[in-house]
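The authors assume throughout that readers already know how a fold can be written as discrete tokens. The format is easy to grasp once an entry is in front of the reader. For illustration, here is how one protein appears when written out as sequence plus structure tokens:
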Amino acid sequence: MTTPTRLLGAAIISCLLATVAHAEDIKAGNLLISQGWSRATPNGAQVAGGYLTIENTGTLPERLLSGSTAAARKLDIHEMALDNGVMTMRALDGGLFIEAGKTVKFEPGGRHLMLVGLAAPLHEGEQIAVSLAFEMTGTVTVPLAVQGMGARAPNPPTRVEAPKAAPVAAVDDPDEPFFTHFCHSKAMANITVSPGRAGPVEIAIELEDSEERPLTTAHGVSVTLADPDQGAAPVTAVAEHRGADKWVVRMNAPQPGRWTLDLGIKLSTNDVVNIAAPILIR
């Protein structure tokens, strides 16, 4: 093979490999959706974040209503908010308002898509598709390029026209788990309470370090539940380590309401991180 041919072959291979490193920009109506990406997840992980940028180039406001994906059981739109001085994650039940001529960003540590109940682990280099339902534009299918664990930003994108997609089907499950995210400067935790209604519940905990990578070195985790508004005294239980970053504890939340969940993460013999935040029991 001649040198020019080798160079051409290398360039072609490089381009082919690059196609899995980023997702395409999407142009749908007055919306430009760019830089769609997610992170690889370890085996057994039940949640993943989705990040992207939405620009409304029109003269009228738009609203992102909901989303879905074949890669997970459900997709929520989440924002980070301070609750009694603790940064917590909450779902935007009324959707996300996008002003005319404005851009909104979904990024680590801030507003994001939350994929709950992953069908399979996400692997670096692959793409997953999410369907986003907008009030005026309709449903738009957006690819998310899966980056490595701990990635902070996507690779540069390209641009294509958006394909049409089917409407998002609504799901109403009274036993649907409650999910939230706890943040601390030293550690983070994805918390799933199932079922999300009053009675015996299982609390599954996935720990992350400050870079949002799986935290596998914790020495122990304790969970305290309390409902002071209804006179429920605090009850503490020690979580069982299920391997790597995963911990599970079974407790009782006998009545619906706004409970307080206090998580104690033992990082070392002399270093314990305590994070308290509200959870909703239906």
Remarks:
- Residues 178-281 form a domain with the Immunoglobulin-like fold (CATH 2.60.40.1930).
- The longest strand covers residues 72-83.
- The CA atoms of residues 36 and 52 lie 4 Å apart.
